[in-house]
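tool=predict chain=A
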Amino acid sequence: MTPELREYAERWISTYDARRTREAYRVALGKLWSYWPQRLPRTTEAVLAASTGDIQAAAAAWSERKQPAARHWNLIMAAWSGFFSFLVSEGLRREPVVLKRRAVPNKPTREVPSTDEVQQVWAMLSHASLEALPRRELARVQHDRALFALLLVGGLRRCEVIALDVGDVTDDGDVILLNIRRSKRNKTRTVGLPGTGEDGERLRRILDDVRADRDAHEPLLLGPRGSRLGGRAAIDRLAHLFERATGKRYTPHCLRAWFATSALHRGTPIIVLAEQMGHSSIETTRGYDQLRHRVVAVGSLH
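tool=predict ok
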């Protein structure tokens, strides 16, 4: 981009607080600029005067060459639409440019899964034979089990689960303690999971499988390349598990909502649940009470 456009872009990007959002939009603007229509000069004046059709031509050329996934395409369209709206607000353009987005196939639902659906996933993971699996595939199944179990039993946020290290899990006999170090507003807390009974023993075995022979500072959950499981990978893994078992795709937050509604269904005091889930306001926890009618019954780990 020209120095003037880059300056305008940085001014617009700086209005976003999240670092990842700023970085994603910065990359998105650069990608579409690389396929600027050849019939137009690559100057600041040409961009400021470009019509919607000109911008769409650049987008179509980039799409034909790169064949982007729908969510990547939508990110770039959102970046350029937002950038041109900013130029309009600064008096540098007369009209905004609204670029069409694409439907995302197999997008995870935001509904709360039923207990039957949760148990179908758990049955699939529990009955999977691990004995004949290659080492890499074995590790993937073990970490899938741990991811699902922690979301199911702990009601944790996605960012809290993937930030756990091996040393953050402490087996206290009756209770399995999780040291949550990364949460909203950088709050820390300790979450206790059941360590007794059939469910407790099952959870202990699952966590032992992913903690065996590993140092305390290593990440608890690993991705396919052996590094810490990422946020997007956690969403994709959980959605894939639900899709295999039920035909539907759910996110980690859907399972967190299931945890909250199930806890309220079986009579957990709302103050206790708010502390378990890390809510700053009890009103946030009360919102899950409105979803209880979607949960048929309370499930378990078996």
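The radius of gyration is 23 Å. Confidence is low (pLDDT under 50) at residues 294-302.
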